[in-house]
């Protein structure tokens, strides 16, 4: 992580200034092959909610 910071790259969603459209894009890529998750299957909308909480 130190290397990433030293390179000036964002390490959080807020540093990335990820707007709602970007979160939708990330969630779509995450769930491209279907739901994700171990104990509970997460769909795209679930992932979007999680990404919004992580902002």
From TrEMBL:
Top-rank taxon: Bacteria
Protein name: Iron-containing alcohol dehydrogenase
Organism: Enterocloster citroniae
């Amino acid at each position: 992580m130190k290397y990433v910071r030293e390179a000036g790259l964002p390490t959080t969603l807020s540093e990335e200034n990820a707007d709602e459209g970007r979160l939708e894009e990330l969630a779509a890529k995450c769930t491209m092959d279907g739901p994700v998750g171990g104990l509970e299957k997460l769909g795209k909308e679930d992932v979007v909610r999680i990404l919004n909480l992580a902002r």
